[in-house]
Amino acid sequence: MPEGHVVHSQAKAMKRAFAGRPVAVDSPQGRFAEGAALLDGATVTSTQAYGKHLFIGFEAGRWVHVHLGLFGKWRIAKGEPPAVRGLIRLRLVNDTHHAELRGPTACEVLTDEERAAAISRIGPDPIRPDADPLRAWEKVTRSRVAIGALLMDQRLFAGVGNIYRAEVLFRHEISPFRPGVQVSWPDFDAIWTDLTVLMADGVKRRRIDTVRPEHLPEIMGRLARRDRHGGEVYVYRRAGLPCYLCGDEVQVTDMQARNLFWCPTCQRT
DNA sequence: AGCTCATGGCGAG
DNA sequence: TCGCCCTGAGCTG
Question: Around Cβ A12, how many Cβ atoms within 10 Å?
Fold first, then answer.
């Protein structure tokens, strides 16, 4: 259940564990049996993350494209793989490591061309140094869609998910309902720059921490607890609780079938 | 045991 | 906008 920072962490972990060596590939569950048979024993060349998409490169110009969706999970560990338990779509095993993939939305073999086409459909990713934020700005500034929805659009902000969108808007006191066209360049620039920092930090720490250091003592004093997502945040999943900064109730509503959290007092349209 | 919810995204209508 | 896909954790009883 990842946002982009988790996918980037996992791409790095997979690279350390598998790159440059042959790997046994199978699909205990059977739903990736054909792809597994094609790649079994091939050498892993590289791994790459673009937004929430992971690409595992194999010799002969083949790639495994994985998207975890809401439920997908990787388990990457040292040593021999444990006995199969549950539904494992894809398993990678070499002399030192193993990886198990469960519940992905996408797990497919792509050619070089198909991989390039897939990447061209993914928007700029704040975690990637080669990302061009102007691609996002051009669309945001011409859109009447709410910025809270635009932030979830992977063609604009690849890798951003429900936690980062809620938190980055809170940090900049921007209402999620403000139309893109009414987001100023300085506001957009602040959002983008902040995402690059927050998400890069997320890759390193493998959790989402968005609370500014100066607010941490206050929040700890109020019995802040780590929620299931792991990390300290301002508004995500805090509906009905007092805003840490103003004390008014954090709100939740549905925006495009996802829970959107915000503080109506701190965040202005 | 069964229900609900979750850091996503797709396609039908 | 809705239904659907995928899995597991955390409740309830």
Answer: 13
**What's the CA A61/C1' B3 distance, rounded, in angstroms?**
46
Cβ contact A103 with chain C strand, < 7 A: yes
User: What structural domains does chain A harbor?
Assistant: 4-120 (3.20.190.10), 133-262 (1.10.8.50)
Pairwise CA distance, residues A90 & A32, whole Å: 7
- Selecting among A28, A52, A102, A126, the annotated active-site residue is A52
Q: For residue range A108-127, list pLDDT tens digits in order.
A: 999 999 999 999 999 999 99
- The predicted model scores a pTM of 0.95
**Residue A69 CB-half CA count within 13 A:** 9
Core vs surface per residue A174-199: b (16+ CB within 10 A) or e: bbbbbebebbeeebbebbbebbbebb
| DSSP codes joined into one string, A35-77 | HHHHHTTPBEEEEEEETTEEEEEETTTEEEEEE-TTT-EEEEE
Q: Which amino acid is at A121?
A: R
Count of alpha carbons within 13 Å of A64, Cβ hemisphere only?
Answer: 31
Over residues A5-53, the pLDDT tens digits come to 999 999 999 999 999 999 999 999 999 999 999 999 999 999 999 999 9
In 3D space, the residue among A69, A254, A255, A269 whose CA is nearest the CA of residue A148 turns out to be A255
Residue A78 annotated in active site = no
- Say which residue the tokens 């493998």 belong to: A206
